[in-house]
């Protein structure tokens, strides 16, 4: 999914849409494997986290790839989709995922989303930012 030339607008659009669809697929995996009502059941929530753990690294790598602005910045649709995945990961993993997602590229993508003229992109980026701030403010869970 690497862009070879910025002169070929069809290729630029293709790579952007391909990335957007990959992120959408990851979002589907994340939401599909999280059982209903798991928010109120710590055991179900832990099972969901364990089931999803093998997908977290590729998801975070895709997020990082989509945050790159060179040679071409991501489209508004891609920004919204990535912000949604970021928010979903933070909701599920809380402050455990923050060290991976709290970086300049992700912050820049969320800022761009919050400044977007597209209401969907703006609202999803605002939500993801709020979830990240909540997770960063939460005490770090310890195991005993």
Automatic annotation (TrEMBL):
Coiled-coil ranges per UniProt: none
Pfam families: TPR_IMB1 (PF25574)
InterPro entries documented for this protein: ARM-like, ARM-type_fold, IMB1_TNPO1-like_TPR
This protein's UniProt keywords: Repeat
Record keyword Repeat present: yes
Span of domain Importin subunit beta-1/Transportin-1-like TPR repeats: 5-111
UniProt key word Cytoplasm: no
Protein name: Importin subunit beta-1/Transportin-1-like TPR repeats domain-containing protein
Annotated organism of origin: Ancylostoma ceylanicum
The encoding gene: Acey_s0003.g1554
């Amino acid at each position: 999914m690497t862009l070879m030339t910025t002169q070929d607008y069809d290729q630029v659009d293709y790579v952007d849409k391909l990335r957007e669809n990959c992120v959408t697929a990851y979002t589907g995996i994340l939401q599909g494997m999280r059982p209903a009502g798991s928010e109120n059941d710590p055991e179900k929530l832990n099972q969901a986290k364990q089931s999803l753990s093998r997908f977290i690294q590729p998801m975070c790598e895709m997020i990082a790839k989509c945050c790159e602005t060179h040679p071409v910045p991501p489209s508004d649709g891609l920004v919204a989709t990535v912000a949604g995945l970021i928010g979903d990961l933070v909701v599920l993993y809380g402050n455990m995922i923050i060290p991976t997602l709290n970086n300049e590229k992700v912050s820049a993508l969320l800022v761009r989303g919050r400044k977007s003229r597209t209401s969907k992109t703006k609202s999803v980026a605002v939500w993801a930012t709020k979830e990240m701030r909540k997770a960063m403010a939460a005490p770090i869970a310890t195991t005993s």
